[in-house]
Structure formats: structure tokens, C-alpha cells
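User: My advisor asked me to double-check a structure prediction for histidine kinase before group meeting. I don't want to rely on an old file, so could you generate it fresh from this sequence?
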Amino acid sequence: MRHTLVPILLLCVALASVGAGVLTVIRHNRAELVRQFTVDRQAQLTEATRGVTDSLEQIGEDLSFAGELLSQPGPLEEHRRELRALLEVVGQFKAIAVYDEQGTERLRLVDRRADPRVAQGALFPRMAELVPLALRSPPGDITSSPPLGEADGPWLRILATAIPQDEGGPGGVVAVLVDMESFFLPLRIVTSDSEARLLLIGAHGRPSPASDAVLADWYQRVPGDTGRMPLYASLAEKMRKGEQGTLLLGEQEASRLGLGSADAVAAFTPIPLKGGSHWSAATLVSTAALRSHERGLVLRLSLAALLVALFLVAFGVYVMVAQRRAVALRESRRHADRLAHLHDKTQKILDHIPTGVLALTAEGRVSAVNQPLRTRLPPSAIGSPLASTFPQAPEPVVARLGALVEAAAGESRVRSLLGEPLTLFGEEGQYNIHAVPLEARDPEVRTLLVIEDLSSVRALETQLLRAEKLATVGVLAAGIAHEIGTPLGVVRGRAEYVLGKLGPVHPQAAGVGVIIDQIDQVSRTIRQLLDFSRLQPAVARPVALSTLLRDVYELLHLEAERRQVGLALDLPEGLPLLAADPDQLQQVLVNLVLNACDACSAGGKVHLAATAPDGSSVGAWGFVTLSVRDDGCGIPVESRNQVFDPFFTTKKRGQGTGLGLAIVAQIVRNHGGRVELESEPGHGTCFTLLWPVAGSAIGEERHVNPGTHPGGG
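Assistant: Sure, here is a fresh prediction for histidine kinase from the sequence you gave:
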């Protein structure tokens, strides 16, 4: 007994020593953890502000580009067109004003999507106030205004730059009203942690609306109260100077800033504007999580060491007592329990794996079947030969399985059929079949036949490929819009200018007109790409279907007549309200009707109809059937599985982008509906939409006239 206790005691002492050493190392490394935490926060902030800096640099380039355009000689109307194109392309620009060297306004432009206060010109006096400052700065430098106030929008700023005085250029200042909010969206990533707080200081040293309210309040107070918040006052001073770095705030200051009772790490970095001014961003994060992690780790290690020590002591006592009892009986029971546990465990594993497994005896009869395969085999499978186990399988398939089992047993190695198209359960599918030979000591389980059904895997692969294709389309659309949109607008403006100078009778006028038409075609393609990649989630509300269908008919029947195609509308009585975003539903119907008109030749017919669900009544749930049918050329059989894929089109080059039906399918899926296609080459096509009825606010439309609304032709 004495010899047994000595190793246990020594082990307990060793565990206690290791635990004490680990605790010491944790305490000594706390400073390193804080340092690494600080480095990570600084890197995160730097990465987030890099995107903001790029956006501000792009705005500076756009403003400089506007100045360069205005520095070129030309009539005022030409400059107006060029600036209008720039205003349309850069969505953050809300208004543009141009002033001469004496500060007199030459022209002004307002974005059609701007707020009423901007559209009414209330902010143009504020823009004029910035002109003297911009005139004193070199061309290309950006002069920024202070925040315009809550009434005018907390994110609105005025940016201005001097116009270069090239040969014959007019000089002066161009100023833009900019909504800065979208530029600072990347900073949200640094506040994704619930314990992180953001302080964003504008070019004029004032906190922006994105700043934490408590941090912004103390930022305003610290210039006159540095005694209570010396480190935070130092942080504010460094941010105003445009410095970059980190600070460790004490527990008392962190508590006053609402960061809890622990030290806080502050990381700060400037966001420069062209011309010398800058914004500055800082994140403040409490180190309470590090302290809590340290305490939790110490506690867990201590408890683990204590439990291990107690377990070892108890185990030693148990061993000493058990040695004086019936060792043989205990060992036999232990082995029996172990075997029973392993048997139950093996049976449960086999029954719960999704792969089918059946066991064959030495004579080739089925001795056991797991649950996934048991549901697909006849009840008499146990004890039957392999041929009777798969009654729906053709004889050649059963023969291949038998040969596979015999080969595995004869060669004492696994034999497989991988990805084979086999008819095992009445219909063809793809399977992996494995014959696994076992030891010959148990004749009841001589061979295992493992059957893997690959049908669901193939379906998932198809869905994954479609998802990857849609993700690629989104990235491609964003890249095209960013890289091509602005220069394309400039090229079109120049082409219009040249066409205006040449006049309609000039020999080259037709060629320049072709250039403008092709630019418009590219612009439409870009808009379709953006519509596809930025499709918003459907915000469904009850929609009166009859009104929407009449609007679609009124919108398109003149276009159908122009193409010499008859358009008919069928509206039955008692249609329920639909759960839909009305704009997106109208977009779906317009796309389908225009495609139908494209498929018809002169004299063709397009029929737009709606059908209420069978047995529907007020308050019923169900689907309304919307159909668009034409008697046009139809869709070839080999193309029907691709019509909803992005960029697939059967139209001639230059007549379609292949995005219309992809957008239709995406909108229908977002609303919980279904789209079906029937087509016969030479006899026309029918697209059917199954659209959900509004569940919470359904009512029948009593004002709808029965019968068919006549179409054009």
C-alpha cells in the first residue's frame, strides 16, 4: 500500500507545480496579450479606413475632373451637359454649382433625387460662402465646409476646388454638395464588437453622427476639463493633429466613457483629404474581455488540477480495495459489458448513418440491414438471397452486385463501383457500391454491401454551381459599373458635343450618332447588370392585382401595336390581393410581355391572364396563377433548362443581355412564388407564375369587370 501511494502523491505534487507555473506564465503574459490586442485593433481600424480613404480620393478625383472640364473653352450649355452627366454617375453628389473668379454664380445643377430643401436651392448660399476659401487654394486642392447642421442633413458637406486657368479657360470655382454617409460605411466593421466604440472627427474638428454619443460628448468637454480625462484629452489632441497610433486609457477614464471597469485600448488614424485637411477615426475597446478570459482560464485550470488530484486519490484507494476482491469476476463482467456496449453502439451507428448497409452470410443471404436501406427493401429481405432483396432491379444489375460480392470475398479486399447509374429501387440513380469482406470466423456476417445514393449530392452540386454563378454576376456587375460608368458618361458627353458642332448634314454626323447609340446600349446593359446584382429583398404588402395588370397593359399596348403584335388582357372576377412588392411584380410582368412580343412576328398575339385559386374565398391562403402566352417562335428543347441562367439569350447579338428572365426568376423566388415554362418550337411559349395571396389582408376586388379586356390586335 505504501508503494502505491508514493507515485500518486508525487503525481499530485507535479500537477500542482505545473498548475502554479501555468498561472505564473498567464500573469506575466498579460501585458503581451494587451499589446497584441492593441495591434489587432490598430490593424482592423487601418484596414477599415483604407476603404474610406479610397472613396474620398475618388471624390477628389471626380471634383478635379469637373474642374478640368470647366477649364476647357466652350459654351455654358456644353459644360452644363457634362456636369449633369457627372451628377447622374456619382450618386453621392446632390448639387453642383460653378462660380467665376469674382464669386458670381455661373450655373447650378441639382440631382433629381435630392431632398426638397436641396432641390429648392436652400443650400446654394452656403456653397457660395466656400468660394473665397477655394479661390485661395491651388487648383486640385479640396476645400471642405463644416457640417451643415441637423436641419440640412448631418452628413451633408460642401466640397470645392479652384478651376485651372488653362489657355482661354474661364477660371473660378466648382462646388458640390456631397452626402458623406456612404463613404464611412466601412467603419461599421470596427464597431461590430458590442464592446467597441467609434469616434469619427470631421475635417473641422467636430464629431460626426457616426460617433458614439458618450465619446462625442467627452470630446467636446475635454478642452476645458483635461484634469479628469488627461489621456482622453491627449487622444483628442492627436486626432486633431492627424496623428496615427494607440493609447491605453486607465480604468477610471474608461468607466467615465461608458467602457466598463477595465482599461481601454484606443486606436486612432487619420483619413486625409486632398489639400491638407483630414478626418480622423478612433476606436475604443475595453480590455474587460481579456481580464475575464484570464480569470476564467485560471479558475478552470485550478478546478481541473483539483479534480484530477481528487480523482487520482480516489482511484488509488479504489485500486487498493479492489485488489482484495474477486478480480476474475470483475474482469469478466467488465468484458461482457464492454462487448454489449460495443454491439449496441455499432448497431446505433449503422442505423443512423445515411448510407445503406446490408450484411451477407457466407451463403450469400441477407443477415442484417440498417435503417436507411430497410425502408427501401421489402419486409422479407432478411434471410433472402441477394436477387430477392432487390425485386425492382433488372437482372443484369443484380448479377453485377453478386459478382462484386464474390470478387471481394475471393480477393479478400474491398471492391467498388463508383458513380454507376443503376436501377435498384424502381428508378435509375447514381450510386457508389462497396463490397467489404470481413473475417471468416463469423459466417453470419461474411461480407458487407455498402450502397451510397448520390442523387442528393448531385442536386446540391447543381445548386452550388448556380449560386457561384450568381455571386460572380454580382461581382462582375459592381466592377463594370465602377470602372466603366464614369468614363462612359464623359465619352457620351464628348460625342454629343462633336455631333452638335458638326450639325446633322455633316458627312460624319451619322457615324457620331452611331457612337452615341452604342454608348446608350452599353449604359442600358450596365443598368440591367446593376438591377440584377443589387436586387433588394422583397417587402411584400397587399397589392390589387387588377389595377396592376391594367397598368401593365396601358404601359405596353402601344409598344405591342408598334410591333404589329396583338396584346390581350384577361381579368376574371374576384381576384384576391397578392403579397408582393408592386414595383418588382410590375417589372416581372413587363419583362415577360416584352419577351413575348419579341418572340412574335407581325400579326402575332400575346395573352396576359390571371386566375384565382380553386375554391378561394375571402381570407383563404393560396396562389394566384399569372400567365403570359404567345404564339411566337417558341424555345428549343435544348435551351429550356438555361433560359433562367444569367447572360443566356436566344436573341441576336446586341438585342438582349440574357438578364431579363434571370431577374424574373430571382424576384419570383424572393416572394415565395414559382415560375413554370411551357414551350413548343414554332407554336409559342407560356410562362406561368404561381404568386402567393396576401395572408393577413385578403379581400376580393368587387370593382373588377368580368370577361376579357380586349388587346391591340
